């Protein structure tokens, strides 16, 4: 009953925001305006209004908006491009609240645990904020603190998004329907770590261990004695944020070398280790005085299992070598493309994706159009899109955007191509093929065990709703219906 009332309250709030910021009135002209340029302006206006509205709905809506901003094939390029400016920044919560959290977590006051603690935060987002402090040993640290009651707010958001999306899809053309399970799985996977700072600390330690032999990468140390579920204390990193180009040049740092290092670091994490930083943005990448790249804020990381990791490595290597036949074979052999689809047409589609990328500078291609093309082809061939691959695409978009900002005339993947080629020859050879065969054998055995287990297990009974709850659900459905008509119109006309 309480959850139903929360849904009603949320829907009323959403309708109020749509009216207050003029979203409803921006949609009306789309019913009558047919001229492409004017429709593009209207859609851009809708995207800008969504950038204002989504942060007011809750933390999960900000994350959802950031994911959907890379999906021009769903929202339309104009709306998606406008939403790229969606920032996860909120006002800081008071130092008195911070003190209460410390008392609750450690049973001690801040002054008992630190030599000094800055009252003003250096960064504040929807999930947490960060303060600079000095430990009792005189070491500068970054202290990250979760917002009060953020876990509950995030999970409430996810439940609303799931219910809401099912209704919106009723009013959208089949080809434009949102595969909400993809986005929800992405949000759920990221929230598991983001909402428990002990896990974020563990993720940082895992990447640090994976990359301990890698040059040019620095992962901050975690101070576990000053860390809990709601507080994470890590090494303070001095340096220049990667988005401050003029300062990097002023420090005599080689921008092209930074781009190459960034590409190699990403490739190592994603294709070699299968565990990568999935919340890359300029605020999370700091260039140290010696030119090393430091990564911070591991609230969103992505794990690629053996199959996905090797799939990504083979596909990247295939595109770099323009081996489109190999790329096609990988997609069909792994089952990413279902049987019955045309292998010949899929290979042509791969060529249409690869040729604009390989050998060209980032200045000559539009990343939003490229991603739209990728996802459109995925839909046309019923390609399975794993939630992890959505995070991978989002990360690649950000990394390439950073490379473009530092030097628009350099293609970072071509710059790192010799290293990637060398790695692939060593790791995609005969030994790798034997490991892959062994993995496939184990997977086959596990599937047989799963079938046997399922054959001897029963199913539970479904719960029945009370008559009163049924009436409340009718009210919720009515509110969803009204809002679904609005958003359904946006998606169908994009």
Describe the model:
The chain is globular. Residues 458-463 have low confidence and may be disordered. Helix 3 (36-57) runs antiparallel to helix 4, helix 10 (180-194) packs across helix 18 (387-406) and helix 13 packs across helix 14 (306-320). It has a domain at 1-88. It is 60% helix and 9% strand. The protein is built from 22 helices and eleven strands. The strands form three sheets. Strands 1, 2, 3, 4 and 6 form a five-stranded antiparallel sheet that branches. It has a four-stranded mixed sheet with strand order 5-10-9-7, with helices on one face. A two-stranded antiparallel ribbon has the order 8-11. It has helices at 2-20, 23-27, 36-57, 59-68, 72-75, 77-83, 95-106, 110-113, 150-168, 180-194, 197-210, 245-250, 255-273, 306-320, 324-333, 343-354, 367-380, 387-406, 412-415, 417-427, 430-455, 467-493; strands at 114-117, 123-124, 128-135, 140-146, 217-218, 231-235, 240-241, 275-277, 285-287, 293-295, 301-303. The two termini are 37 Å apart. The chain is an alpha+beta fold.
